[in-house]
Design a protein that fits this description.
The complex is a heterodimer of chains A (399) and B (112).
Chain A (H helix, E strand, L loop, with lengths): L1 E5 L3 H13 L3 E5 L2 H10 L4 E5 L7 H11 L6 E6 L4 H10 L3 E4 L4 H55 L6 E2 L2 E8 L7 E7 L4 E9 L4 H13 L20 H15 L8 E9 L4 E7 L5 E4 L4 E4 L17 E5 L5 E5 L16 H8 L7 H12 L12 E8 L1
Parallel strand pairs in A: 1-2, 1-3, 3-4, 4-5
Antiparallel strand pairs in A: 6-7, 7-16, 8-9, 9-10, 10-11, 11-14, 12-13, 12-15, 15-16
Helix pairs in contact in A: 2-3, 3-4
Chain B lengths: L2 E6 L2 E6 L3 E2 L4 H13 L4 E5 L5 E2 L1 H14 L4 E5 L3 H9 L7 E3 L2 H9 L1
Parallel strand pairs in B: 2-4, 3-5, 4-6, 6-7
Antiparallel strand pairs in B: 1-2
Chain lengths: 399, 112
């Protein structure tokens, strides 16, 4: 060990240096606390053996100076004392001394105290090593987390980028709201014309929210795109469209079970077709929240009572197409259950009945304004409240 | 996750002691119930009467447990109410699971 001996008595310094050198240690000498502190700052001492009473700076003050300096390594301090009594020990310990030895110095006793010092220093050393290792692991984890975070931010932009931007198709006007719970989410939707008369649409909520859910939702965007094999199986016309949504749901369910390993993830959806020529709405419900339909005839907003098996949960399920008249002035509103996981000011969850009450008086307004006002009412745009689930809302109007 | 179990006749009644069944507890629920199955308790009554909210990931977990039970036992859901019962209905899972109002009703129905 590198040991610093601090004593104002020259004979004491020499005795200690001789004993310690014979034990195999490297020894330096100082005659008071201040000189010692200067040496400690210049050299790496593992151990300081210091006298108690010295001119300029005494032993306890040296102890305190070393402890407050918070050196990057531990210095073990043995205070020498000719004084006896508990009070002195307490003072020394408070100052930060590790051990005490009484004068005159007995070689055997000092040997034992040095072994104890070595044990403590070894422990300190291994703790320092572990801390250094943890710090380096921590740095790698932070770097990895930052990378994931920036990837997710990028992915969020890409995910929002696949959502449809066109909002008018002949007599049909569409508008939507989308907000993932985290950066990216499992909600998605799309709509596009199949021919001059038919507009295809869907609103999907993949279970869970996070990377796996978001990737599955992107996968579904591809599976349900106009060019996918699920779509291209048939030519749609006014007759076949009446059963198309349920057949497509069955094909998708089959595909998810037998072609795509989705793990524990599945999805709920509403998917359908608006026939603008015959003014009809056809859709399939697969476990998705029950949609609202505004009728220009009754001027009422009604929730459509429908149930269905989610997609990808159980194989070979049967689905049914719901068929409703959709005259000019009708509005079809689809939403994911994230909307129903929001809390009101009183802590209660928002119910479908409440959602309907919010929407009904807004039905004469264009979809974009309805969404704006609903977002305001439910606090959707506030960044301060954390959303428990992805939220999506899709409105389809026939003008 | 709080889950208490007791044996009642041939059945193991597992009661979920949580108000919220969501993604935070779904993996633990799956682990604990599948452990019961591994240990040979294949006739399970899952009591949801204390649950007031269930999300889609928990429903997915229940279905995967039902698949695990398969033909070698039972997984009976009891005590689903409010929006939990609504979720079973909305997703037609009340047609897939055996459901009962209470543990007694479930065991009585099996005995009958």
């Amino acid at each position: 060990m590198n040991i610093l001996v601090v004593d104002d008595a020259r004979d004491m310094q020499l005795i200690l240096r001789r004993i310690l050198t014979l034990m195999g240690h490297q020894v330096m000498l100082a005659e008071n606390g201040e000189t010692a502190w200067q040496l400690i700052q210049q050299h790496h001492f593992q151990l300081v053996i210091s006298d108690w009473v010295m001119p300029i700076m005494d032993g306890p003050t040296l102890c305190r100076t070393v402890r407050t300096a918070e050196l990057p390594y531990y210095v073990y301090i043995i205070l020498l004392t000719g004084m006896s009594g508990k009070q002195n020990l307490i003072q020394g310990m408070e100052a930060g001394a590790d051990d005490f030895a009484t004068k005159p110095i007995v070689r055997e006793e000092l040997e034992v105290r040095l072994r104890a010092a070595q044990r403590v220093l070894d422990l300190e050393h291994s703790l320092e090593d572990k801390n250094r290792h943890l710090e380096s692991v921590n740095r790698s984890l932070s770097a990895a987390q930052q990378l994931i975070q920036s990837d997710l931010e990028r992915a969020a932009v890409l995910q929002a980028g696949v959502l449809p931007s066109q909002k008018a198709f002949g007599r049909i006007a569409v508008d939507w709201f989308f907000q993932p719970a985290q950066y990216i989410g499992g909600d998605t939707f799309n709509y596009f014309p199949i021919n001059d008369d038919l507009l295809f649409f869907y609103s999907i909520d993949v279970s869970g929210h996070g990377i796996a859910s978001a990737l599955l939702s992107m996968c579904l965007q591809t599976l349900l795109s106009a060019t996918s094999e699920l779509h291209c199986l048939e030519e749609l016309d006014a007759r076949t469209v009446a059963t198309f949504p349920s057949r497509l749901a069955e094909r998708l369910n089959h595909h998810l079970h037998y072609r795509l390993d989705t793990g524990d993830h599945y999805l709920t959806l509403i998917m359908g077709v608006v026939d603008t020529q015959l003014e009809q709405l056809y859709f399939v419900q697969a476990g998705h929240p029950q949609p609202f339909l505004y009728s220009p005839v009754t001027t009422q907003l009604e929730q459509i009572d429908c149930t269905g098996f989610p997609i990808g949960l159980l194989p070979d399920m049967e689905y049914e197409t719901i068929h409703l008249p959709f005259p000019a002035g009708s509005r079809f509103i689809l939403y994911s259950d994230g909307l129903l996981e929001l809390q009101e000011a009183n802590g209660e969850l928002i119910t479908e009945a409440m959602l309907k009450r919010c929407l009904q008086p807004l039905m004469k307004q264009p979809a974009s304004q309805v969404i704006q006002q609903l977002a305001l009412k439910l606090g959707l745009n506030s960044t301060s409240t954390e959303k428990p689930d992805d939220i999506s809302l899709l409105m389809i109007d026939l003008c | 996750m709080k889950l208490s179990t007791h044996v009642q006749g041939e059945f193991t009644v597992a009661t979920i002691g949580e108000a919220r069944m969501d993604a935070a507890i779904a993996p633990e629920l799956k682990h604990q119930i599948s452990q019961l199955l591994t240990d040979g308790s294949t006739r399970i009554v899952l009591d949801l009467s204390q649950v007031t909210f269930m999300d889609s990931s928990s429903l997915g977990t229940l279905v995967s447990l039902l698949k695990m039970v398969g033909n070698r036992g039972d997984l009976i859901i009891v005590g689903a109410k409010g929006i939990v019962a609504d979720l079973f209905k909305l997703t037609r899972m009340e047609r897939v699971f055996r459901m009962a109002d209470s543990v007694e009703a479930a065991l009585g129905a099996v005995a009958a």
